[in-house]
Structures are given as structure tokens and as C-alpha cells.
Design a protein that fits this description.
- The protein is an alpha+beta fold and 243 residues long.
- Among the domains are: 104 residues, Thrombin, subunit H (Beta Barrel), CATH 2.40.10.480; 62 residues.
- It is built from 4 helices and 7 strands.
- The strands form 2 sheets. Strands 1-2-3-4 form a 4-stranded antiparallel beta sheet, with no helix packed on it. The protein has a 3-stranded antiparallel beta sheet with strand order 5-6-7, with no helix packed on it.
- The protein is globular.
- The two termini are 40 Å apart.
């Protein structure tokens, strides 16, 4: 097997390792805007008219959009918790983090991934609220092992004598003006959110703001941040480099 062919096979297997887990049931909504492409589209049929079936009260505002997989509903709350409910609105379990959970969970291969404002990314098994640190064997791992085996069989070229070279510090990559503007806009809205949360009690106490207005303003800021984050992701997928 030539080295060039071996490399092509390895790249193909590496790409397939990411595609294998992304097989979605038509009724599931496993992440923000449904899928890795953020299409926001599903084949699931919906009735023309909807009515409220149930609601669930948490200890704080909910900015996290839910993920629904295998009859379970996952979402975060400003009360520091990730929640898991059944589709009838009954609590199955919840887990407390060190800060607000604005992140929308992503559910892949029976695992729940989400971030918290405490600076931590969490991964849980979907059946119970316990971190899962056991080795996880999946199609991606099998393909990775196969790639390593193929790599070992590729004929190695004779090593050339090492030449002394002067190491250069990597130049800082410049981002596009559009991405830079989006990042600045995100920081500004994050600052507005922190100011609102910090001044909430004082403004309500002085009658400047009502609880209802605070909730409305809070949701407006969160929706704006979600929209900006989505644009940042799309810009980075395009490359986001300065032209």
C-alpha cells in the first residue's frame, strides 16, 4: 500500500467516524436547531392547532432550548441546574452546576453534553445524573483503531538528517471584520446581561422595574445572544479569516 493511498483511506475513515453518530430519529430534537447544520427543520408532523399540555417551573429563568430524545426532555436553567423530564412534564432528575446553564444540551449516542457559566463542559449518561468517565466504544472508536492499523502498515520513508532550524513563533491569525464585529457584539450583550442580573433587586426595590419587565428584558437579551452565537458559528464554519 502506497503512502498516498494510505493517507487518503485514513482521512476517509476519520470523516466517517464523525458522520456515524449523527443518525437522528424523525421525532427527536437532539440539539440546538435540531442538527449539526442548524437547519431548524424536522420531518415530524405537527397538528395545525396546538394547546398547552403541561408546564414545569424551575428556580430561575430558562434560556436554554430543550433537547428531546427517546421520550426525555433536557434543558438548563438560570438556577444552576440541568433538568431531565419525561414528555409528560415529570422530573426524572436534575444536576446542579456552579453557575447558570444557558447552553442548549446536545444528546448524541445516549450522552448529554452541555456547558455552564461556571466555565465547565459536562457530559452525562442519559439514564441517570452521574458523570460517565468509562471508555466508550462506538463506531468512531473502531474506525480510529482501524486508521491506526492502516497507518502502521504504510511504508515509512527513510528519515532525513535533522537540520538545525530557528523556531519561529506562529503569527497570530487575523479574523474577518464580520467575525470580529460579532465577537464584540456578543461581549457587549453579555455585559448587558450581567448588569441586568446585578441590578435586578435594587431596581425592583426602587420601583424602577417590575418582575415581569425584568423577565421580559432577560429573555430579550438571551435571545439576542443565542442569535449572535449562531451567526458566529456560521461565520467560523465559512472560515472566518480575514480576506
Amino acid at each position: 500500500m502506497s503512502e498516498s493511498i494510505g493517507r487518503k483511506v485514513i482521512v476517509l475513515l476519520f470523516v466517517c467516524s464523525f458522520l456515524l453518530p449523527i443518525v437522528l430519529a424523525s421525532d427527536d430534537w437532539p440539539m440546538f436547531r435540531h442538527d449539526p447544520q442548524h437547519t431548524g427543520y424536522t420531518d415530524c408532523e405537527m397538528p395545525d392547532e396546538l394547546e398547552l399540555l403541561w408546564k414545569y417551573k424551575t428556580g430561575g429563568p430558562v434560556a436554554s432550548s430543550p433537547a428531546v430524545v427517546n421520550g426525555k426532555v433536557y434543558f438548563g436553567s438560570d438556577d444552576y441546574h440541568l433538568y431531565c423530564l419525561d414528555t409528560n412534564g415529570n422530573l426524572l432528575w436534575k444536576y446542579k452546576t456552579g453557575d447558570s446553564v444557558h447552553s442548549s444540551p446536545a444528546v448524541v449516542d445516549g450522552r448529554v453534553y452541555f456547558g455552564s457559566c461556571d466555565g465547565t463542559i459536562y457530559c452525562f449518561g442519559s439514564k441517570k445524573a452521574e458523570p460517565n468517565y468509562l471508555p466508550y466504544i462506538s463506531g468512531a472508536l473502531v474506525l480510529f483503531i482501524l486508521s491506526v492499523i492502516i497507518l502502521c502498515k504504510v511504508k515509512k520513508k527513510p528519515e532525513k538528517p535533522k537540520e538545525k532550524t530557528i523556531e519561529k513563533k506562529p503569527e497570530k491569525e487575523e479574523i474577518s471584520p464580520k467575525l470580529k464585529k460579532l465577537l464584540q457584539e456578543r461581549d457587549e450583550w453579555r455585559a448587558k446581561l450581567e448588569d441586568l442580573k446585578r441590578e435586578k433587586d435594587d431596581l425592583i426595590k426602587r420601583g424602577v422595574m417590575t418582575e415581569e419587565y425584568y423577565q421580559q428584558r432577560y429573555e430579550e437579551i438571551i435571545n439576542k445572544l443565542v442569535d449572535i452565537e449562531d451567526k458566529i458559528i456560521q461565520e467560523r464554519m465559512k472560515g472566518g479569516k480575514k480576506k
